[in-house]
Structures are given as structure tokens and as C-alpha cells.
Write a structure and sequence with these properties.
Length: 373
């Protein structure tokens, strides 16, 4: 199975199927293969991030087989048996420490419940900073994969009209006002000591994309630098999804990620991406409605369709009804734009979980170097 595409030089190229293609059951005739191939950087980095986390060069105190066992549990919670079976095969019967499983379950199902003492519990279970960040990235990766797969499978079904399903009752729609969402600039306080940039290894510097004279790196990136193999691919993957040209308008990518961040209770991410939406559109009404009333407060049909789709993919387990795909198309989205929306939500299943499980927002104005989600 492979996708045939036309590359930048006009030549016909064939793209070998990756793990996501295989697990989504995409056939040679599927137009989604071509759509995915158009986001070549995203496609390649998705596979590379998986390989870095499940076949690491330096597993440290978190062995590869145990990583696969944790990943299987996350995929099972996400309701994707094909993904769970993949990780079950990689685990080859290995078990994971109970503390690691418990942490993975909590961050998967209720990331807003993360607390700094949970990281101390992981240290007590035998993980160092490298292992804790590797575990955090693994949890985030599998949640990303589950939402990407759910979205692709709905898009592959063609979006034929069918009865809508209500959003899960556990999702905070409207948003919980006690959380205190804002578009003010916030800082992010890590619960794990960041890597000291002046002491960073060459591998860490490459992953951070810095030179010895570049010191404008925020605490978030420096925490993630404890595990540079995953960070090397995670940052360009994020950028390739959120900032890629053409496709879904940037403002709508920001709206979808703001919706997801509200549903997951990630105050920092909601602040960054709701603010960007306001900057791009010049209006605050949609964001104010989202913060006070949740998805139900959005009146624009296209915004509502985008937000409902984001809400369904945010849920655990993630899902997207065929009727939602049909509604997105009726609202004017092309399939390439719908794929961009799926990717944006998927990457924020990753970003929210990192931000929420490794630190907390601080309500004070800081410089832009504090780092985005």
C-alpha cells in the first residue's frame, strides 16, 4: 500500500505506508493517503516521534518494553483496539510498574487533575527526570495517535448523514467558570527542574535548535530537553501542524485548540491560543462566549461545526461522528481542511497533557520567551 502524489518538481512519488495508515485501515485507493502525504513533515515526524519513544537509543530507567506496556494501557483507555494491539505486540508480555500505569491513566482521562506530587511519586517508583519526561511524552503521543486515528476513520467513512451523538456528559460544556480562563499573558511554572542550557549536551542543543549564544529558551522547552530524542521530532511536528501554509485557516486551528484546551482545563494553552485567535480575527466575542458558555455559546455555523468536532475528538475515548464530518463539509470545509482540524486537535491532546502534567500556569505578565504550548 502506498500513496501516489506529485512532488514539488512535478515528479510522481510514492509514499510507503506508515503506522497510522496501517492502523486506520487506509486502502491504496483512499484519498486520505494523498491528503496525508501533502503534510509530509507532519507525517514523517509522527512516525519518527513514535520510533524515538518506543525504540529509544537511550531508554535509561524506562525500558522500551515497559514503555510499550504503558502505551497499550493508554490506547485501551482511548478505545482503539488496533492501536492497543500494536503496543501489546511491542510489549511482548512485559508489565509496567503500577505507579506508571496509574499516572498514565490519570493524565489520559483527567489531565487537569495533575499535581506536582504525582511527579514525586514517579521518582519514588524509580524514574529520574529523563524517565519522567519520556513517560510524559509517551502518554501525550498515544493520546495524539488515538485522536488522529479517530478523525481519519470518520473522514474515511465519507461523512454520510447519520444521527448525531451528544458530547460525553463528562465533558465540561459549558466550560467550568471556576477554572478562570483568560487571554492574558501567563507564565508557566515547571514542577521538574529544567535542563540548564549552559550545561546542555549537544543532543539536547540540537533538539532545542539552539547555539551556545542563544539563551532565549523557556522553561517548558528546557524541561522537555531532559528527553531529547522525542523533543527532536515533537517541536517540528507541532509547528508543521499549527503553522503549515494553506489548508485550514490559522484562526480556525487556533479556535479548535482553544476549545480543546478549555475542555481539558489547560488554562495556559487556552490563554495562548484564544489570544492568537483574537489577534487573527480582530474580535473577542467568540472567545468570551467560549470561556463563559462553552461550545454552546458559539453562534457562527462554521465555528460551531469546528468546535463540536474538536470537542468530540478531545473526549476520552475520542470519537468523531460521520454526521460531524458532513456538518463540517456543509459549513464549507474541504477534506484537506478537515484533516488539518483533526491534526490540530490531535497535537493538542499532546500539548495539553504535557503542560498540565509537568507544570502549572502563573498569572503574571512575562516575555514571549516563556514558550508556547
Amino acid at each position: 500500500m502506498s500513496a501516489t502524489i506529485i512532488d514539488a518538481t512535478g515528479e510522481i512519488a510514492r509514499v510507503a505506508p506508515d503506522l497510522i495508515d496501517q492502523l486506520a485501515g487506509l486502502s491504496d485507493a483512499s484519498p486520505l493517503l494523498v491528503l496525508r502525504a501533502r503534510r509530509a513533515e507532519v507525517r514523517a515526524r509522527t512516525q519518527a516521534a513514535h520510533d524515538a519513544l518506543l525504540s529509544p537509543r537511550r531508554p535509561g530507567l524506562f525500558p522500551a518494553a515497559e514503555r510499550a506496556a504503558v502505551a497499550e494501557r493508554i490506547a485501551t483507555l482511548a478505545g482503539n483496539e488496533a492501536l492497543a494491539a500494536h503496543y501489546r505486540g511491542l510489549a511482548a508480555g512485559a508489565a509496567a510498574r503500577p505507579a506508571l500505569i496509574a499516572h498514565a491513566e490519570r493524565v489520559t482521562l483527567s489531565p487537569r487533575e495533575s499535581r506536582p506530587e504525582h511527579l514525586r511519586g514517579l521518582e519514588d517508583a524509580g524514574l529520574d527526570a529523563h524517565g519522567i519526561v519520556a513517560l510524559s511524552q509517551l502518554i501525550a503521543l498515544v493520546n495524539y495517535q488515538a485522536r488522529l486515528l479517530a478523525g481519519l476513520q470518520a473522514l474515511e467513512r465519507g461523512g454520510a448523514d447519520e444521527g448525531q451523538t451528544d458530547l460525553p456528559s463528562g465533558a465540561p460544556v459549558p466550560a467550568d467558570p471556576s477554572i478562570g480562563f483568560t487571554i492574558d499573558v501567563l507564565d508557566w511554572k515547571p514542577w521538574l527542574a529544567p535542563v540548564a542550557l549552559e550545561k546542555a549536551s549537544e543532543e539536547q542543543r540540537v533538539a532545542l535548535a539552539v547555539t551556545p549564544s542563544n539563551m532565549a529558551i523557556g522553561a517548558y522547552s528546557l524541561v522537555l530537553a531532559h528527553e531529547p530524542e522525542a523533543l527532536l521530532h515533537r517541536t517540528p511536528l507541532f509547528n508543521g501542524i499549527m503553522y503549515a501554509p494553506r489548508g485550514l485557516p490559522r484562526a480556525e486551528r487556533e479556535l479548535a485548540t482553544a476549545v480543546e484546551s478549555v475542555l481539558n482545563g489547560c488554562v495556559y494553552c487556552a490563554s495562548v491560543h484564544a489570544r492568537r485567535f483574537v489577534e487573527l480575527t480582530g474580535g473577542r466575542e467568540a472567545v468570551e462566549a467560549l470561556f463563559t458558555q462553552g461550545i454552546a455559546g458559539l453562534e457562527d455555523r462554521r465555528q460551531q461545526a469546528v468546535s463540536v468536532a474538536a470537542g468530540r475528538l478531545t473526549a476520552s475515548p475520542a470519537f468523531l461522528a460521520a454526521g460531524d464530518v458532513a456538518e463540517l463539509r456543509r459549513a464549507g470545509l474541504q477534506d484537506g481542511e478537515i484533516l488539518d482540524l483533526i491534526l490540530a486537535v490531535a497535537i493538542f491532546a499532546w500539548a495539553n497533557r504535557l503542560m498540565l502534567s509537568l507544570g502549572e500556569p502563573v498569572r503574571e505578565t512575562v516575555t514571549a520567551s516563556s514558550g508556547p504550548a
